[in-house]
Amino acid sequence: MTARDISDLQREVEQLRDAVDISGRQIASRWEGWIAQPDFTSSAENFARYLSFRTHDIRQLQRRLMERGLSSLGRAEGRVMPTLDAVRDVLRILDGGETPLPPPSPDFFAGEELIAARTRTLFGECSHESGVHLMVTLPSEAADDASFMVRLAELGVEAVRINCAHDDEQIWGRMIDHVGEATEKTGRRMRVMMDLAGPKIRTGDIRPVDNRRLRPGDELAIVLPGQIGKVEENLPAVECTLAEALAASEIDHRIFIDDGELFTHVERREPWGVAVRVVGGPAKKGYRLKPEKGINFPDAEFSVPALTFEDREALGFIARHADGVQYSFVQHADDVIRLQEALARERPDDWRTLGLVLKIETGRAVRNLPDMMIRAAGQQPTAVMIARGDLAVEIGFARLAEMQEEILWLCEAAQIPVIWATQVLENYLKKGIPSRGEMTDAAMAVRAECVMLNKGPYLFEAIESLDMLLRRMGEHIAKKTPKLRPLRSWATGL
Predict the structure, then answer these.
(1) Greater pLDDT, 348 or 487
(2) DSSP alpha helix (H) spans, 124-206
(3) Domain boundaries, the chain
(4) What confidence tier does 101 reach under pLDDT thresholds 50, 70, 90?
């Protein structure tokens, strides 16, 4: 590489830096007045510049920087401008500039410290060497078994999740009482996160034909509540609990039932709903229709309030007893505003101390994620949950692998904690034996600040295995950065 090449490289980095700074300021101007938390201002500024930075295709620039032994800019999420400044300054010196290399900026690693501090605010001190917090979804039985909470605390679980879609305030209250008892016995306080149910899009009444299971090629009626009797008798039918979703469904739209177990396409619209053709499902044994199963409409554009009447009823209890609220089906910054206004009515003096978890479950939530993050974290302690179950059905299983990475990057840039959730060690929890694939998946969770496990008969064993796995992986990687500790698996003769 010639001196001219160095000059060209320096100029290209300077131009990139200036463009990122200018457009980053423009992005941040959209959020004026959204931020009440003083320590989040710098995070929002870095986030805006990261969004600007990622509008550029710098793949060729990266290779040229690597050739000179410089940063490829591939780990700039938490420190966009400091990284660009550092590379620019080194190139100036290589280009013969007389300005000495400045000392490292004290702000270079400030983003890492902010994420760590915000994680502690939400989930308490981490008891695991990996630095990754653990959250466990409580089964209903936990309301009647105080020893269950004690065991969780002894295993170092930092937070428990109560799903408000199930049970009631009496049961939730007994669970929380047991959390307090476990604190007294172990000296470890577990944070309580309560999950709003959100608008329910589920199957209702069903009408199979001749008790027949559905297979690819079969036709099915998905109908408005109370309309099954209007469907021709030879057609199996199932109700959808949300009329707005059916009203927005058009021909060729995809509809998934039961976490994608049944995959259908809309063939025609009818006054009672839609007729769909089954294009995917268990071909050999077929699919048996069941009530209370989730339905996903990834192609339909419809708007329903994320905060339902039932959620508002539950908020009074949540505001009095929980450390944080997990927001289901949040899809827009306005949804965040509505919840924060409701929390302010419940706890006018200190609602901003309540944690807020944005559950990213839909394609619309992905598209609106930056504004939702600023609206939330600008006002109160916030984390983002990658709710990979519904999200996979909504955007496609192949796209999920890409999108979970992008969400991790966005959150690191905004210095907001991430919760890695849905089907983590699912096979292990149910059967006591992990699959190879789920162990690899769980290992990648080390890049998040918190991992959520669901309930299962082998929960305690899964916690111990996950702790060991994350501890080992934590020695090798932090976010996107490999940590090159000595490798000891091979004999080198040294």
Answers:
(1) 348
(2) 146-154, 169-186
(3) 3-108, 115-199+305-479, 203-296
(4) low
